[in-house]
Amino acid sequence: MFIGHFAPALVAAARPKAAGLGTLFVAAQLVDIGFAALLIPGVEAMRIVPGITAMNPMDLHHMPFTHSLLGTSIWAMIFGAIVWFAAKRKEAAIGAALVVVSHWFIDLLVHIPDLTLYGMPPKLGLGLWNHPLIAMPLEIVLIGGAFIYYAQRTWAPTGNRRLWILAALLAFAQAADWFGPKEPAYSLAVPATMLFAYILLAGTAAWAGANRQLAVPRTA
Q1: How far is the C-alpha of 47 from the C-alpha of 53, rounded, in Å?
Q2: Which of 125, 104, 84, 117 minimizes the C-alpha distance to 35?
Q3: Cis omega (within 30 of 0) on the bond before 122?
Q4: 220 inside domain
Q5: Mean pLDDT on 60-77
Q6: Which domain, by its residues, includes 189?
Q7: DSSP readout, the chain?
Q8: Are strands 58-62 and 154-155 parallel, antiparallel or unpaired?
Q9: CA–CA separation, 25 vs 142, rounded Å?
Q10: Average pLDDT, the chain
Q11: Is residue 212, in this structure, part of any structural domain at all?
Q12: Residue 129 belongs to some domain of the structure
């Protein structure tokens, strides 16, 4: 799962007193941002094993600090505290923390067993990466439904042009992830590419959501 992780961010951003869309895009991929950062010094580790799953050649064999449920929860609490300190809104902090935690549960659907509860076995994962005809439509439904939800519940004085640019960028990123060339072996290019993608998407989301406001419900 890649852009499907942003679905909870879009839903949360349409709530009153929510954090900004850019902040919530960071929240949605925070544990993967942390994973990429921890790969560089070797604190967490992965391998490229072609064929390990039908859709993804990454063997994510050591990521106890980011992709355990306990680790994800700690990242969520820290990020929620940062949002509360910056925004002084309890609703924004809680929403951002929940978006961080959502990452683990979405990963649980698609990963082969490489997730943990607290960094030790058992390893968990339902393995939908081995079933593209399920995983790919699921990703499209998640992000498409969330985009519709966000677009219907917010508006911008300048229209939806920025939002559709964000949608196009997400579609391009997902297509590249699904159909683009894969790294033949692990190198620092892998975490560098991950970090670049997350920064670009979060920055575009911040720009797209900057002038959007909650729609006022129509009265009878």
Answers
A1: 13
A2: 104
A3: yes
A4: no
A5: 98
A6: 3-206
A7: --GGGGHHHHHHHTSTTPPPHHHHHHHHTHHHHHHHHHHTTTSSEEEE-TTSSSS--EEEEE-TTTSBHHHHHHHHHHHHHHHHHHH--HHHHHHHHHHHHHHHHHHHHHS-S-BBSSSSSPPB---GGG-HHHHHHHHHHHHHHHHHHHHHHEE-TT-SHHHHHHHHHHHHHHHHHHHSPPPSS--THHHHHHHHHHHHHHHHHHHHHTT-EEPPPPP-
A8: unpaired
A9: 15
A10: 95
A11: no
A12: yes
CA atoms within 13 A on the CB side of 53: 24
Find all residues with CB under 8 Å of 72, minimum gap 6, and list them.
Answer: 31, 66, 100, 101, 103, 104
Total number of domains in the chain? 1
Percent of the chain with pLDDT over 90: 95
Q: Which amino acid is at 87?
A: A
Query: Which residues, 6+ apart, have CB-to-CB distance to 169 below 8 Å?
Result: 200, 201, 204
Q: What pLDDT, on a 0 to 100 scale, did the predictor assign at position 1?
A: 77
Angle (CA) 174-83-168 rounded to 5° is 20
Q: Which two tokens stand for residue 68?
A: 């355990």
**Domain-embedded: residue 211:** no
Residue pair 1/110 in contact by the 8 Å Cβ criterion = yes
Q: Are 209 and 21 in contact (CB under 8 A)?
A: yes
Q: Which residues contact 76 (CB under 8 A, 6 or more apart)?
A: 30, 97, 98, 100, 101
- For 177-196, how does the pLDDT look when each residue is reduced to its tens digit (9 = 90+)? 999 998 899 999 999 999 99
- The tokens for 116 are 């943990």
